[in-house]
Design brief:
Elements (H helix, E strand, L loop, with lengths): L1 E3 L3 H9 L2 E4 L3 E7 L12 H4 L3 E6 L7 H18 L7 E7 L8 H14 L9
Parallel strand pairs: 1-4, 4-5
Antiparallel strand pairs: 2-3, 3-5
Helix pairs in contact: 3-4
Length: about 130
């Protein structure tokens, strides 16, 4: 299951973490979710982690409203396909770039997978 980041404060917290990957089709920002104090020490770590949460953004540099909406839709589709392989307990922000609108879909998938691998957050088996 993939959650959503919706509030501006959540986007700013992810940006403040200063972990990002820039690719031709997108920019990936990552922040580890803060651990809760109520977690017990004997429970498995994977069971305690929150699901992956993701937010999408596209600035006016991408183009007009139609182009920005198309870019966000494409990023949502790529995230649905790829982020099931991401380590749980992380927040992600996918930022559209001007090339996102016209870039081949498989190239966008490759960009996101490469970013997850580079940030050491990619798992071969899905959640």
């Amino acid at each position: 299951m993939i959650g959503r980041l919706k509030r501006r404060a959540e986007f700013l917290q992810v940006a403040a973490a200063n972990r990002k990957w820039v690719a031709p089709g997108l920019i990936l920002q990552v922040r580890r979710q803060p651990s809760t104090e109520s977690q017990s020490d004997n429970a498995p770590r994977a069971a305690l982690l929150e699901p992956v949460r993701v937010g999408f953004t596209a600035s006016r540099k991408v183009g007009n409203a139609v182009a920005r909406n198309r870019a966000r839709r494409r990023l949502r589709s790529v995230a649905r396909e790829v982020l099931c392989h991401a380590e749980p307990g992380n927040d992600f922000v996918l930022i559209a770039r001007p090339a996102t609108v016209d870039r081949d879909y498989q190239a966008l998938v490759t960009d996101l997978v490469a970013g997850l691998k580079r940030l050491k957050l990619y798992r071969s088996e899905p959640q």
